[in-house]
UniProtKB/TrEMBL annotation:
A cellular-component GO term for this protein: plasma membrane
The keyword Cell membrane appears for this protein: yes
Family statement: Belongs to the UPF0756 family.
Organism lineage: Bacteria, Bacillati, Bacillota, Clostridia, Eubacteriales
Protein name: UPF0756 membrane protein GTO89_14110
Amino acid sequence: MRGGTVLLIFVLLLGAIARSPMTVMAAAAILALSYLGWGGLLEWIEQNGVDMGLIMLTLAMLAPFATGKVGAREVLLSFASLPGLIALIGGILATNLNKQGIDLLSGEPQIIVGMIVGSLVGIVLFGGVPVGPLMAGGLTALFLQIYWWLTR
């Protein structure tokens, strides 16, 4: 059995223990594609998967505008309140961290397993909610920057 297969089975099992169906489905799908010999599709997923996921997340966030659940009035009122302004700042900071997370994951893919295990531990022990590796990557990038700054 290849090392990557062992790691994927480990992630699948951790996902099952953590009751994280998205992690289980993702690990099972990648294992299945690997065993079916669909390397071309795996490469496509590796190169385009993050972008496709971000498109889906953006669609989900924009859908309330199209369904009429959120209108221009609500948007304008949100900017007139302190919580709305704090949310704006939070969005700016989060997207910056997510960009740093993507850069980190692209440059050092071995970090992904640690982030997945950390996310699963957060789910099991602290009742966390898995929202994907980008924020974990962003926080990891921030912590690494602080570490490098402190140790220079």
